[in-house]
Amino acid sequence: MLRPYFCAYHSYLENMELLNSEERGRLFTALLEYSKDGTLIPLTGNERFVFPGIRSQIDRDKAQWEQIDNVKTANGRKGGRPKKTETKKANGLDENLKNQQVISVSKKSLEKEKKKDKEKDKDNISSSTATAENDISACVQAYEQNIGPIARAAFDDISRQLADLPADLICEAIGEAALNNKRSWNYVKAILKRCREQNILSVDAYRAEKENHAAAAAARAAPAARPQSKQAAVRERLKKRLEEMGGAQSDNPADNRIYVEATELVAEPLPGE
After folding, report:
1. Class of domain 137-221
2. How remote is the C-alpha of 270 from its chain's centroid?
């Protein structure tokens, strides 16, 4: 049997304080759909930070309700059977009384566990909400320090960006925009889009990619080493040979003339030097 309702606790009000009317409406609609048949509606606003905690509470309430319902159903079946001899056990309790005691104990245990779960869920929701608030606050502070007063559209977009990117990476992108004197949210969004496309999901990965990009750009800008020309190679070989001769004079005047001409040739610069 499906439960036709879900419990809305007063503690939820504390977690909804930061939501506007539209976000509260979307949150409540999503909770109703999930409670009815487990449907998950995509959420894009700040309500998505509150939904997971309440969803967990709905799951726990549903499990407890089903457990109690199963006990009642089982007892109902036992009551509908033909009665046996009214024989009591040695402890003086008949089966009906024993079943009632089991139900009573089960209810108390469930209520106790439910109370513990409510307190735990309240802490989880509060912790999740506090983390989301801190992330948004850090991004807004970075935006206003580097770009200027933040508009509502940029604020809402930051909330959406935080769904899959860490706050420190968004702050890094904001700082990068200011460093490049591109103080606009559109420029920041372009950086974040590139991060998603390249699967850059942390500040360390972003900075490493920047260093690699700068090194590649420097390598492209550096002049390529010019290969040695054939003339230069011949001249180097001739120069080395003259050094080996050490300027020694030969008895053959022709040899001496060749030595002098070769020395003068080595001394002449090649074209382009």
Report:
1. mainly alpha
2. 61
Q: Can you tell me whether residue 159 is helix, strand or coil? A: helix
CB 263 within 8 A of CB 242: yes
> Which token pair is 249?
């004079």
Q: Which helix (H) or strand (E) holds 243?
A: helix 230-245
Structure tokens at 100: 């009632």
Cα R_g (the chain), whole angstroms: 41
Please check whether residue 193 is in contact with residue 165, taking contact to mean a CB–CB distance below 8 angstroms. Answer: no
Which residue has 């969803």 as its token pair? 55
Residues 6+ apart with CB under 8 A from 43: 26, 27, 30, 51
Tens of pLDDT, residue by residue over 171-213, are 999 999 999 998 889 999 999 999 999 998 898 999 998 888 8
CA 12: distance to chain centroid?
Answer: 26
Beta-carbon neighbour count of residue 177 at 10 Å? 22
Do you know the residue count of the chain?
Answer: 273
Q: Which residue has the higher pLDDT, 211 or 78?
A: 211
pLDDT tens for each residue of 223-254? 665 555 666 666 676 667 666 666 555 555 55
Cβ atoms within 10 A of the Cβ of 20, count? 11
> What pLDDT is recorded for position 251?
57
Number of helical H runs and strand E runs in the chain: 10, 0
Can you tell me the distance from the alpha carbon of 151 to that of 149, in angstroms, rounded to the nearest whole number?
Answer: 7
